[in-house]
Write a structure and sequence with these properties.
13 strands, 9 helices, binds zinc ion, 315 residues, alpha/beta
Length: 315
């Protein structure tokens, strides 16, 4: 059995795994993503790979899924809104450290590929994956292949402008989709609601030790699961943005399925229910005809690394 390693590099963590041709993950390594230091991040990725190779010497190649714009030749990270990369030659930097062939892919593209090969979009040759986490990622499967665009950076749907002159974004522009629908957006809404309506946010505030500014994403999810009014409303607010955005994507791409992944989407129906309602409303008469359903991703946190590993295998 040929094994490959996939590494998912996000704004907060580096997650690596050894993966079989069937998409099974045999071992996992996790590190914190270094702040504002591109070389250090490459070194952490190489460390994760080296540890996994030491335990699984048969590994043949490495795929790295990175949160950023990847060059068309898949050698470099051109730009990353949430990681300290500018024209970073990530492929060669890692390859020389680990002594294995390396391919670099956008993290959401890698996750989309994994869901298409082994998960919620299996057998659907036209599919869209949308991940909601630190930001919004998009991956497009068209005719059974990853659609990268002419310059390698298709599917950056988190940076579609949805509010003219809206909130500033890490990409240098304003009003981007991910400023209104993401983990940070969820926390911002929850804090604002807790500040304005503390009695509606009683459970949420209790989980945060009574401090509005101490509210974090996992507490919003937990409070919402327990029925906290403000936490449920925070999910509804970002869910409405999501549903509208998915309807716009369907207008362009007409996929067979929409797959929703990422850390925030792990809240399940708390996010999916308001998203579906807004999606249906935004589609209008289109819903009378065949149209993509929204499904939760099936591979969870591992999608990015599984997809990166599979792309390394078919490089
Ligand atoms: Zn942006």
């Amino acid at each position: 059995v040929t094994l490959t390693i996939g590494v998912d590099v996000g704004g907060t963590k580096v997650l690596g795994g050894v993966v079989t041709p069937d998409g099974e993950v045999l071992a996992i390594e996790r590190r914190v993503t270094p702040d504002d230091d591109a070389r250090q991040t490459a070194a952490v990725i190489a460390d994760v790979v080296s540890d996994l190779v030491a335990a699984h010497p048969g590994v043949e190649a490495v795929g790295v899924g990175a949160a950023g714009w990847i060059s068309a030749d898949r050698s470099s990270v051109l730009f990353a809104p949430n990681v300290a990369w500018r024209n970073e030659p990530l492929r060669d930097r890692i390859a020389e450290k680990v002594g294995l062939p390396v391919v670099v892919e956008n993290d959401a593209n890698a996750a989309a590929w994994a869901e298409y090969r082994f998960g919620a979009a299996r057998g659907v040759p036209d599919a869209l994956l949308v991940t909601v986490g630190t930001g919004i990622g998009g991956g497009i499967i068209a005719n059974g292949e990853l659609f990268r665009g002419a310059f390698g950076v298709a599917g950056e749907i988190g940076h579609v402008r949805v509010v003219p002159d809206g909130l500033p974004c890490g990409c240098g522009r304003r009003g981007c989709f991910e400023q209104y629908c993401s983990g940070p957006a969820l926390v911002r809404e929850a804090r604002a609601l807790a500040e304005a309506y503390p009695t509606r946010a009683a459970r949420l505030l209790a989980l945060a030790g009574g401090e509005v500014d101490a509210i974090q994403g996992p507490q919003v999810t937990q409070a919402a699961i327990e029925g906290d009014d403000a936490a449920v409303e925070a999910f509804a607010v970002i869910g409405r943005w999501l549903g509208q955005g998915l309807a716009d994507l369907v207008t362009i791409w007409d996929p067979g399925v929409l797959v929703l992944g990422g850390g925030v989407a792990e809240a399940g129906e708390l996010l999916l229910a308001p998203a579906r309602t807004a999606y249906t409303a935004a589609l209008g008469p289109r819903v009378e005809f065949a149209v993509a359903e929204i499904h939760g991703a099936e591979l969870g946190n591992s999608a990015g690394l599984i997809g990166a590993a599979d792309l390394a295998r078919i490089r």
